[in-house]
Amino acid sequence: MTLKNEVGFLEVICGCMFSGKTEELLRVLKRSLISKQKILVFKHASDIRYSTQEICSHNGQKISAHLIENTSEIFKFDLSDIDVVGIDEVQFFNANVIEDIEKLLAKKIRVVVAGLDLDYRKKPFGYMPQLLAMANKITKLTAICAQCGNDAFYSQRLNDTKQLVLVGATDYYEPRCALHHYIPENNII
User: Fold this and answer.
1) Averages of pLDDT over each 10 residues, the chain, 189 residues
2) Which amino acids are annotated catalytic?
3) Structural domains in the chain?
């Protein structure tokens, strides 16, 4: 990719919990910085697990980021020199995320998003299906099943909480393969 984008480009990084989505997003953004591209990074305001001012991977890698509730807040920032916009935990954003990403692409900005493609019930999460359909590039990652060591595609919720959005890490989730993932009957929404 050239330094200045000729067209907008959408890259979606997805997978289950602990598959390395944020780590991959950080790798892509750091490569953009090495290429002397200007980046602007955001994460959903509900994700304050490790920091309120950075995107942090489970293994401790990080990059400065802005907390936002809605992707329309991105347009409050000066985007005139921005080459790349990174968004972590994209599955938490509302319907505006589609339109707002289209606006960024129209500005010839490369947009790199990371998020869960499936919720803990193995259902498509939020607006990820639309983002995956729009994507120019998709990176789907797997984790390692906490039960058997095989490839894990699913996020196993470890408690009986029925709310769909429950931000957490190893305290609430672990990666599981198809054989070991289950949804407790009393937790089916």
Assistant:
1) 71 96 94 96 80 67 87 97 96 94 97 96 95 98 97 89 57 91 71
2) 89
3) 9-141 (3.40.50.300)
